[in-house]
Design goal:
Shape: elongated
Main location: membrane
Radius of gyration: 23 Å
Membrane topology: Multi-pass membrane protein
Protein name: RDD family protein
Structural class: mainly alpha
Distance between the termini: 32 Å
Subcellular location: Membrane
Largest sheet: 2 strands, antiparallel
InterPro entries: RDD (IPR010432)
Length: 262
């Protein structure tokens, strides 16, 4: 087992980012949460299905004859499987590699090159999940694979990483204006749109800006602020807010902290 296994990616801005691979413990907790949600959904579905079947028992009998029970079970099984796979495909595609369980545990699925997963990768992972869970094959692979991958990850070319990034190395100061803007951003902005590599670029800039010339710092700050603003779907910012203040506020909002120094 590889404790604190790490992977490195290089972003288009030439910033090298290092992430910790999510181990079997975090992944198991996320899966338990997801299965509780799925089980609740299944219970509701089967109750509704049983009620509808009872109301339409005559129609079912006329349509399928003696095979009515077999057809009802088959339809319920197919719908259940679609719900099972669709749950993971839907959330991992919509939430950029996270399900509700993964979001709570703070892990995320990304491609091997660090890019967000798409529909194809999420579908492959979901379809192979039953094979991974058969005799705990996936768990054994996660434990012994160098990058802690299960069958679904190997087929889809994905890896599961921790989304939390250590902040103890940061030495820059956060302005009071950024703290005020941070409080305003939380209720109006979905920070889940920011991927770990997006945050890492902000982090690197804020940490290194003191060593830049004023011209280079201004140009890069404006460019990064525009990119982050587009990701967060923020159309406008207050006229008094500079790009540096905006990036500081996003840094705070991403971590949900408000200390004097990060």
């Amino acid at each position: 087992m590889h404790l604190f296994n790490r992977v490195k990616y290089r972003t288009p801005e030439s910033v090298e980012i290092e992430f910790t691979v999510a181990g079997i413990g975090n992944r198991a907790w996320a899966l338990i949460i997801d299965y509780v949600i799925l089980a609740t959904t299944w219970v509701v579905f089967f109750l509704v299905w049983a009620f509808i079947s009872a109301q339409l028992v005559d129609w079912w009998t006329e349509t399928f004859g003696s095979a009515t029970a077999v057809w009802l079970v088959a339809i319920a099984f197919i719908v259940s499987f679609v719900m099972y796979t669709g749950y993971f495909v839907f959330f991992e595609t919509l939430w950029q590699g996270q399900t509700p369980g993964k979001r709570l545990v703070k892990i995320r699925v990304v491609r091997d090159d660090g890019r967000p997963v798409g529909l194809q990768q999420a579908t492959l992972r979901a379809l192979l999940r039953p094979f991974d869970e058969f005799l705990f094959i996936g768990a054994f692979l996660i434990i012994f694979h160098s990058k802690e991958k299960r069958l679904g990850d190997l087929a889809a070319g994905t890896i599961v990483i921790q989304t939390t990034t250590p902040t103890t190395l940061a030495t820059f100061t956060i302005s009071e204006q950024a703290k005020s803007l941070y409080a305003e951003l939380l209720p109006i902005t979905d920070l889940s749109r920011l991927l770990p590599d997006d945050f890492a670029v902000i982090y690197e800039y804020l940490q290194r800006r003191g060593a830049m010339s004023n011209k280079a710092r201004s140009a890069l700050s404006i460019k990064l602020a525009e990119q982050v603003q587009a990701i967060l779907h923020l159309e406008t910012l207050p006229a008094t807010v500079t790009s540096d203040v905006f990036l500081e506020a996003v840094y705070l909002a991403y971590h949900g902290v408000g200390s004097d120094e990060s």
